[in-house]
Write a structure and sequence with these properties.
Blueprint: H1 3-15, E1 20-21, H2 22-30, H3 34-37, H4 41-53, E2 57-62, E3 70-75, H5 77-92, H6 100-104, H7 108-113, H8 117-136, H9 142-165
Antiparallel strand pairs: 1-3, 2-3
Length: 166
């Protein structure tokens, strides 16, 4: 299953139960599971556009009070069906997925040979920031809380491993 499919699944899971505007979605993803899939604001808006082009979501322009106009995204009936199918496909490939750090490990020797230790140090700082951001999210129950806990544990293990290299 592609990374793109996992990104779509995550975004659709946020939109499926209630409408949300793009900025709030970006904030929620940046401080939650988004970094695990490499979702950033720029690619989030492109992803929303692709989902809308495929008629899985639609937007409505709203203006709350004196605030600027915002696009509020909602899932469509086709999107609900697509979400369930995507969920089934992503879960069927769970054993085939790998952690992002694992993809980089085969190249780590080359990185350190090239004197790029600052890249590892930067990764360590980035992981610390991600852990901090996840811990700042109010407690969630159910599967959302479990997902955040799992991502935090993965980051902590990656951090422990990278810290042991220096």
């Amino acid at each position: 299953m592609s990374l793109s499919a996992h990104r779509e699944l995550l975004v659709l899971s946020f939109i499926r139960d209630h409408a949300i505007h793009g900025y709030a979605l970006a904030e929620a993803l940046e401080n939650g599971l988004g970094p695990a899939l490499g979702i950033k604001r720029a690619n989030l808006y492109a992803l929303l556009q692709r989902l809308e082009e495929r008629k899985l979501i639609r937007h409505k322009t709203v203006r709350p009070g004196n605030a600027p106009e915002r696009r509020e995204y909602r899932i469509t009936a086709k999107g609900r069906d697509g979400y369930r199918e995507l969920l089934r496909r992503c879960w069927s490939t769970v054993p085939d997925t790998m952690l992002p750090l694992a993809v980089l490990l085969p190249s780590l020797d080359e990185l350190t040979k090239a004197g790029q230790a600052e890249a590892v140090a930067s990764a360590v700082l980035g992981l610390k920031e991600r852990i901090k951001a996840i811990r700042a999210i109010p407690a969630h129950g159910g599967s959302a809380g479990a997902a955040l806990q799992l991502i935090e544990q993965h980051y902590a293990l990656d951090l422990k491993f990278l810290s042991s290299l220096s």
